[in-house]
Amino acid sequence: MEQADLDLIRQARRGKPEALADIVRNYQQFVYRTAYGVLQNATDAEDATQEAFIKAFRSLKQLREDRTFPTWLARIAVRVSLDMLASRQRRAQLPTDEVSPAISGAEDAAAARIDVDRALAHLNEEHRMVIVLRAFHGLEYDEIAQVLDIPVGTVRSRLHHARMQLRRLLGGERGDG
Amino acid sequence: MMDRCRDWESLLTAYVDGELSAVEEQRVRAHLAVCPFCADLLAALLADERQVAAYAQSIEPPPGLEARVVAALAEDHQVVQSRRLIYVYLCCSIIGLCTLVGLVVSPFGSLVTLAFHFVSAVMRGLMAIPTAVHQQWLVVAAAFSLVLLGISLFGTARVLRSSRKSEVVL
Ligand SMILES: [Zn+2]
User: Fold this and answer.
1) What is the pLDDT of residues B40-77, one digit of tens each?
2) Which of B10, B40, B52 is facing A135, going by the closest CB pair?
3) Among all residues of chain A, which has the CA nearest to that of B10?
4) Contacts of B76 in chain A (CB under 8 A)
5) What pTM, to 2 d.p., does this model score?
6) Ranges for the RNA polymerase sigma factor 70 region 4 type domain (chain A) (predicted)?
7) What is the pLDDT of residue B167?
8) Where does the pLDDT of residue A176 fall: very low under 50, low under 70, confident under 90, or very high at 90 and above?
9) CATH 3.40.50.300 is right for the domain spanning A1-102
10) Residue of chain A whose alpha carbon sits nearest to that of B1
11) A99-103, A163-167, B19-23, B162-166: least confidently modelled range
């Protein structure tokens, strides 16, 4: 985490509105990608991003160490996304198979992206979350453990099963089961 | 595929993440050197990793999201502030009410009530004078002369004070 971001968080604690706007600018991609990874839907990911930032700034006093801000924010984003996922499942709306507007790019790369999109949609929540935190953001195992509130050993085994599942969905060779 | 390689699989994913101890990493390297199955799996896992990372990179928040979030934060801040203001207002009125009740109940409160009764009795007495003497013009003249007396006393005092000051200066 950069010194500039640490300064911003200190200013945000003092209630400086410009600091909040700068933090949103610097971390919106991080939060949005996390939410999108869990929710697999652009509209829901936008709503989740907004709610995650509101929750984060409301409870900024509860952040004990400024330098743990990214994992703390990821934790909030994951929880908001999971809540949203639960309410969406209550409404019995299944994720759509159509290509989301958030995924765009050249034709050749697009096919690979759709593959990952479908594969992630087939993973269960627990597996999808560890993949999002590790493969999307490159968090360390102990950071993932903090975000998800699980032991490091569980992170390791979950990531293993998620990867083997993903392997089966993406390549079909030597996957789990 | 060899069944005994199942045991290596869990180590391979942690190896991809660089989360193995030095000893474990050494063992995995040694196995990879002699096992084409695990070497293939490692290559596939690394390819998956790159594919998922590329996918993550392609997820871009829509251009309007930042402004939307900032606006929502400002609105939330206002809601929280106004809620806080209502709490402050409620607390103040409760404290005020309690103080009032306390004053009335306490000995000091009865003293205040007594003083109030006394002042109101005096006022009522003063108001009754004009009708009692049946000569309102006398009362008006008395009040007027009282005011005049006050003004002249005030004027004299000022003149005295200013003359004393000029003496000091001279
Ligand atoms: Zn092997």
Assistant:
1) 999 999 999 999 999 999 999 999 999 999 999 999 88
2) B52
3) A160
4) 54, 57-58
5) 0.72
6) 115-166
7) 58
8) very low
9) no
10) A174
11) A99-103
Asked if residues A51 and A83 have their Cβ atoms less than 8 Å apart, the reply is no
Q: How far apart are CA A176 and CA A160, in angstroms?
A: 10
Report the number of distinct structural domains present in chain B: 2
In a domain, B69, yes or no: no
Would you give the DSSP letter of residue A134?
A: I
Please name the residue ranges forming H helices in A40-68: 42-58
Same domain, yes or no: B85 and B134: yes
Distance in angstroms (rounded) separating the CA atoms of residues B154 and B146: 12
Average pLDDT of span B91-111: 82
ipTM of predicted complex: 0.84
* Owner of token pair 């942690």: B14
Look up residue B119 and give its amino acid.
V
Q: Which residues of A109-128 are buried (b: 16+ CB within 10 A; e: fewer)?
A: eeebbeebbebbeebeeebb
Parent domain of B53: 3-58
Structure tokens at B6: 């199942």
How many angstroms separate the CA of residue B91 from the nearest CA in chain A? Answer: 23
